[in-house]
Hints:
The protein is an alpha+beta fold. It is 37% helix and 31% strand. The chain has helices at residues 2-13, 15-23, 41-44, 55-64, 70-76, 94-109, 165-172, and strands at 49-54, 79-88, 113-120, 123-132, 135-145, 151-161. A six-stranded antiparallel β-sheet has the order 1-2-6-5-4-3, sandwiched between helices. It starts with a helix and ends in an 8-residue tail after the last helix. 39% of the residues are buried. Pfam families: DUF4252.
Amino acid sequence: MKSFKKSLSTLYSGAVLASALLVSVAAGASPAGSIDFADLSSAYGEAKVEINLPKSLINMVGTLSQQEDPEIANVLNGVDFIKVRVYQLNGEAEAALKTLDTVTSNIRKLDWQPIVSVNEEKEKVRIFSKMTENVMDGLVVMVVDENGPGEAVFINIVGQIDPNKVGAIANSMNIDLGDI
């Protein structure tokens, strides 16, 4: 689990932009990949991190990275939207766990495929993808970690991308996905 946490930490802390870029490997203009997470600000206050990257900003990042890494630029062309929310739990995980369970139940009914499910004593992780044929329409990552003050992370990437590109992008960003 420590290796998984290290991978997740790298994904999250390598500036949330890095996590957004990795997760963005799964997006395009497809409503099928969009998920509406509950607004948890009434339970936890303002999100510690809130990212809303529309296609126009993602295209700008892709354009800027074109010379340095054309493969990442190519992948980003398929990304339509990236949404990230991170909340400090302050020892009260109930609302975040309810959101994780509700979203999990809802997206399973919509034929999202589970990729990772971790159920530790003080940690739950869910990663799902929405596929159309061999192309990802969306990726959802949800983590509720009750250790210490606790943290809840909700990420949704919308778009269309070849899942075989995920490894190449992760490698180019030095992110170890071995345990995921």
